[in-house]
Amino acid sequence: MIRSLILIFSFAGLCNAAALAQLDTTDYTRYADPLNGTKGLIFYYGRTTPFVGPPFAMTKWSACTQPGRIGRPIYQYLNTHITGFRATHKPAMWMGDYGHVTLLPVLGEMTSGKLEQKLGYSHRHEIATPQYYSLQVSQQSHKMKVEMTATSRCGIVRFSYPSGERGSVVLEKLHGHIEIDTALREIRGWNTERESEALGPPLPHFKGYFIIRFDQPFAAWGTADSSKLMPYGVSISSASCGAWVSFAAQQAEARVATSFISLEQARENLDKEITGKDFDQIVSETKAEWNTYLSRIKIEGGNRHARDIVYAGMYHALLFPREFSEYGHYYSAFDDAVHAGVSYNDYSLWDTYRAEHPLLLFIAPEHVPGMVQSLVQMYQEGGWMPKWPNPTYSNIMIGTHADAVIADAMVKGVKGFNEHAAYQACLKDAMTPPDGDAHKYWGDRVPWTSYEARQGLTYYATRGYVPVDKTAESVSCTMEYAYDDFCVAQVARLTGHFDTSRLLLQRMYNYKHLYNRETEFFAPKKYDGTWSEDVKAGFTEGSPWTYLFSASHDIPGMIDLMGGREHFIERLDDMFRGWHYVHENEPGHNYTYLYDYAGAAWKTQQRVAHYRHAKYRDQPNGMNGDDDCGQMSAWYIFSSLGFYPVVPGTDEYAIGTPAFPKMTLFFDPQDHNKKFEVIAHNVSGRNKYVQSVTINGRKLESPFIHHSDIVSGGQLIFEMGARPQKKMWK
After folding, report:
1. CATH architecture of 313-335+342-434+449-721
2. In 3D, which of 409, 425, 334 has the Cα closest to residue 378?
3. How far is residue 263's CA from residue 387's CA, in Å, rounded to a whole number?
4. Exposed, middle or buried: residue 118 (CB in 10 Å: 0-12, 13-18, 19+)?
5. Ranges in the chain annotated CATH 3.30.2080.10
6. Residue 16 predicted with pLDDT over 70
7. What's the whole-number average pLDDT of the chain?
8. Which of 4-13, 99-108, 234-243, 445-454 shows the lowest per-residue confidence on average (mean pLDDT)?
9. Which CATH number fits domain 44-293: 2.70.98.10, 3.10.450.50, 2.60.40.150, 2.60.40.10?
C-alpha cells in the first residue's frame, strides 16, 4: 500500500490574526501561483506545469527543465537546467505531448552542441503568473532573459541578450518540416510528433502547424538534420529537423502562432490574436481573462495560505479540457479530418468526472455545453466517446466516464448540445462490447489494436461481473461499469428512453456480485464463479481497500451489503485509521463524505478538515498527489466551500466543513447579484465541526443540498464549533 511520506502540514489557528489577509479583488492572479504543485520526488506531488496562457488555451507555454515524454513532466522544479521554452500540448505527466514547438536562446557562433544546449537558472530569477513568465538563464557566465505571454493559440517570447554577444534562437529538433523565410523574418512548418502515438490509431494527416515571426532581421540562419548543421539552409524535412536564426540586436521577439488545421489557419490565428498588439497588451488582456474566471469565487477572511491554495486550484481547474477549435473549425483526431464547429480535447475523464467537471458548472458554465458536445462529436467521428483523448483514443484507464460527465450536465440542466446523439453515444458505451472483447485480456497502455471502451463488457452483461481470468482490472471495471450504468440510465430517462433506463437501473447492482462476505471486500472472481486465490488481482491503481466504498451510485445498498450503518462506519474508520485511504489518487476522493450517509456527519467534517490541511500547501510542493487536469484541485475547492458532489449524475451535494468565514460563488460576471454565499460563523482550525446549518433561512434536516439550491442563489450559513454534534443528523 502506498503511504504518504510527507509530514502533515497543519493550518492550525485558521483565523489567527497574523494569517488573515484582505483579498485584492482587482487582481486575483496574484494568488493563483502556477508553480504550485511543480516540486516533488517521483510520487507525492502535483506534477503540474507552470503554463502561461488564458483559461482552456489550445496551446500553452512553459519553460522546460527536461525533455518531455510520457511519464515525465516537461517542468520539474527540482531540476537545475533549462532545455527550452515550449508551445506545448502535453496535458499531464502520464500523457504525451503532440505537435509542440520548442525555442531555446543561445549565444555565440552556432555549433551542433548548441542545438541541445542546457542553460543554468535559479528560481530566484523566476516570475510565474498565469499571464506572464520570465526567467534569467545562463550560458556559462553569460546571462539572458526570457519572457513569455500567450493567447489561446499564439504566444510571444521575448529574448534579451547581453551586450556584445551574438544572440540566436534555436528551434528544437522535431519530426516534420521547417522552412525559413528571411524576407518575412519567419520560421514556419509543422511537427507530426505524437508521444502517445503507439497507444492510439494512426493519424496520417495529423500536423502541429506553426509560424514563428521575429521582429528583428536575421544576421545568420540555418537548418539542421539531427546533429548536422546546414548554415543558410532554408528548408528541411526530416524525422529530426531543426533550425536557428541569429540577430545583431540585443533583444528579439518571437511571435508564435499554432494550428492543427493548416499553415494558413496558423497565420489567421496570428492575425486575429496578437498582430498589432504589443507584449504588454497581451499580458494585460490575458490577465483580465483570468480575472474574469478567478473572481467567480470570492473569499473573505480566513487563512491566506488556504486562500492561495484555492486560487492556485482554480488556475489548475481552468486549464483543461483545452480548446481545440480555431475560429469556427477544428481538426478531429478521431477521423483525421477538419470539421466546422467548436471542439475541446484532453479530458482526463477517469479523474475529472468526480469533481473537476462538476466544478466547471460553477466557475466556467459557458464552456460546459461545448465540452459535452465535443465528447458527442468524438463519438460521431470515431465511433466511440473517448476515455482519455491525447488527442485521439488512447485506451488509458478504465470505464466510460464520459457517460458521467454527460449525465451530470443533463441532470443539472445544461443545454446547448445534441442530447439525442449524447444518448446514442452513452447507449453504445453500455451495450456494445469492443472489437475482440472475448479474445483480448486488454490492459492499461498496451499498444493499440482497437478501442477498448468497456473492456470485458461481454462478460459483465451476461455474468454480471468482469472475470479476473478473462479481463485485466476486472474488479475495478465491474465497480465502475455499475456506476456508469447508473449514469447512462439518467441520460436515458431524461431523453425519454424509459425501458433502457429501467434496464440499466437494474444492472447497476452488478457490483454486488463481487462482494465477498467472508473477507468483507470486493474481490476478484473467475469466469467459473469461484473466487481468485490472489485477492489483490483485478484492481486499478489501488488495493481492495481502494475500491471498497466505490459503489457511490448506490450508497444505501452498499451500507446494507456491509451489514448496516454501524458496521459501515466501522469499515470506514478502519480504512482511515489503517492508512489505507490514499488521497493522492482519485478513486477515494468522495470517501471522506460517506459518513454523511450513515448518520455520522461529524466524522466527515473531521476527515475533510484533516485531508484539506494535510495534503495541500501554497508552495511549489503544493499537493500530495497528481493533480490530473484539475481533480485534486477541485476536491480542495469544493471541500473549502463546505459541500461536495459525491455522486456525479445526481443533483445532490454532501455537506462537509467550510474553510473560510465567507466564500461567494458568482454565476454571472456582469451581475454580482446572482450569487451564492457560504457563511461560516466562528470557523477556525479548531472550530471545524458544524453545529447547525441553514439554507436561505431554512434549517437543513439532513447533510445534503441540491444543485438548484445553489444556482438559485442565496445563503448557506454554518454555525461552527470545536465539539462535534454527533446527534445533529441521524
Report:
1. 2-Layer Sandwich (3.30)
2. 334
3. 30
4. middle
5. 313-335+342-434+449-721
6. no
7. 94
8. 4-13
9. 2.70.98.10
| Per-residue pLDDT at 90 exceeds 70 | yes
CB 13 within 8 A of CB 684: yes
Name the segment(s) of the chain with CATH classification 2.70.98.10: 44-293
Q: CB neighbours (10 Å) of residue 80?
A: 10
The C-alpha atoms of residue 481 and residue 322 are separated, in whole angstroms, by: 27
pLDDT tens-digit readout, 619-677: 999 999 999 999 999 999 999 999 999 999 999 999 999 999 999 999 876 777 789 99
Give 230's contacts (C-beta < 8 A, 6+ positions apart): 222, 223, 224, 236
Q: Distance (Å, rounded) from C-alpha 482 to C-alpha 476?
A: 10
Q: Determine the Cα–Cα distance for residues 455 and 466; give it in Å rounded to an integer.
A: 9
Cβ–Cβ under 8 Å, residues 154 and 59: yes
Residue 558, pLDDT > 80, answer yes
- Please, are residues 168 and 244 in contact by the beta-carbon 8 Å criterion? yes
> Quick one: angle between helices 368-382 and 419-431, nearest 10?
60
**DSSP conformation letters of 669-715:** TT-TTSEEEEEEET--SS--EEEEEEETTEEPSSSEEEHHHHHT-EE
Helix, strand or coil for residue 590? Answer: coil
Can you read off the three cell numbers belonging to residue 464? 454480471
The type of residue at 467 is P
Question: What phi and psi, each to the nearest 5 degrees, are found at residue 629?
Answer: 60, 35
Q: Are 261 and 182 in contact (CB under 8 A)?
A: no
DSSP reduced 3-state for 323: strand
- Count the alpha carbons within 13 Å of 616 in the hemisphere toward its beta carbon: 27
User: Do residues 155 and 148 lie in contact, with contact meaning Cβ atoms separated by under 8 Å?
Assistant: yes
> Kind and range of the H or E element at 171?
strand 167-181
Measured over the CA atoms of residue 605, residue 608, residue 612 and residue 615, the dihedral's sign is: positive
Distance separating alpha carbons of residues 118 and 306, to the nearest angstrom: 36
Other CB atoms within a 10 A radius of the CB of residue 226 amount to 12
The grid coordinates listed for 451 are 478501442
d(CA 476, CA 495): 29
